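Table S2 (text version). Query chain:
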Amino acid sequence: MKTKLQNIRLLLLDVDGVLTDGSITYTDAGEQVKSFNSKDGLGLRLLMDAGVKVGIVTGRTSGALLHRCANLGIEMIFDGIKNKAESFEAIVRNTGLAPEQIAFVGDDLMDLPAMTRAGLSFTVADAPAEVKDAADMTMNLPGGRGAVRQVCETILKARGDWDRIIARFLS
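Corresponding C-alpha cell output:
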C-alpha cells in the first residue's frame, strides 16, 4: 500500500459527501449553499504544495464549489458529470498520467466507475457498504468532516513529506 500511496501524482475528489457532508441547502432564490471543512482545505493545500495535483469530478454544478476551488487553487474541475468513467479516461489522456498515479475519493455508487479505474481509491466513513467494499482505504471520518484531510495526510506520510510539513509549522 505504501508504494501505491507514494506513486500518487493526482488526487481526484467527488464533492457532495466527500468535500461536504452531502447536505444540499437551497435559498429562497434557488441558489445552492454548501459547507466545506477548513481542515480538508488545509490538507489539500499541503498536498498541492508537496507537488500532488488535485482535481474535482462531480455530478453537480455549483457556484459555491467554483468559489471553493478558486480559494484553494484547484483548476481541474469536471462538474455536471454524468459518467465518471469517461471523465476519468479523459483525465488520463489529458494529463499523460497512468491510472496507477491517480487516486480517487468517492462516497456513493456513482463514484464506483472512477474508483475502480484509479490506481488507489478512498472512501469516507459514512459511505454505503458497496463503496467501502470497492475502496482500497476507508477513512474513519465522514465526508465534509475531515475525511479528505485524512486522505491528504495518508499520502503525505507515505511520501515522507509529513515531518517536513510539521517542522515548517513549528519553526
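Notes on Table S2: The first strand starts at residue 10 and ends at 13. The first helix runs from residue 2 to 6.
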